[in-house]
């Protein structure tokens, strides 16, 4: 039964990853939080395990999603190369920061962050991309990658909630922003997952785990998300940019309010 749940999570998360370029973490983290709670794991580490396991699954999801976007020629590889070093360093650092935070603190932080990004995204849903806007210099992109990496590791996401708006704001059309964000999810996920494995070694006594990463959940979610991410990527090229932004904002709002509710209810 547990494996079936992980497969279902993977199916939904994979489609979201391909559609929104978010790596599926915004779906995986809240559902894993619920599942791990029902399995009576230590409340102090449930949120950390949900985030760490989410990042591990995004490794597989990103590979599937970015290959589909690459075939359509939508990935801006030059931008990816500028962001990647910062993404890697930031993600590992972010895992270390998350290790020092309480589970409740993580919930509230993720919740308010998601709602804020949703508001910004929905507000600009019908705003046309300004072709006069250009991406910042390479050093500035490197620094942006570092910030995105830190936040993404803390939130257990592939960075789409930050990378997509960042690229969009600098003149990149939605489809290319989503595709490039999907590529950026890979270095974030690898460095972040390794960080959570490393920093969680002395804190987790749950069977079938490496640090904060749950192996069975990782396998089940990854297997299914690899398939459905391709379907989501195809859908992303059918919908209009404005519709994509609205759907993206709706998803973030739902997740954000859920975590705020959970975090506040513990107080």
From TrEMBL:
Annotated InterPro entries: TM_pro_TauE-like
Q: How does it sit in the membrane?
A: Multi-pass membrane protein
GO CC, one annotated term: plasma membrane
Where located?
A: Cell membrane; Membrane
Q: Pfam families annotated for this entry?
A: TauE (PF01925)
List keywords of the entry alphabetically: Cell membrane, Membrane, Transmembrane, Transmembrane helix
Bilayer-crossing residues are: 6-33, 45-67, 79-98, 142-167, 179-199, 211-231, 243-261
Signal sequence, renumbered to the chain: none
Is Cell membrane given among the entry's keywords? yes
Q: Which domain of life is it from?
A: Bacteria
Alphabetized PANTHER family for the sequence: MEMBRANE TRANSPORTER PROTEIN HI_0806-RELATED
Say which family it is in. Belongs to the 4-toluene sulfonate uptake permease (TSUP) (TC 2.A.102) family.
Record protein name field = Probable membrane transporter protein
Tell me the classification of the organism that encodes this protein.
Bacteria, Pseudomonadati, Pseudomonadota, Gammaproteobacteria, Moraxellales
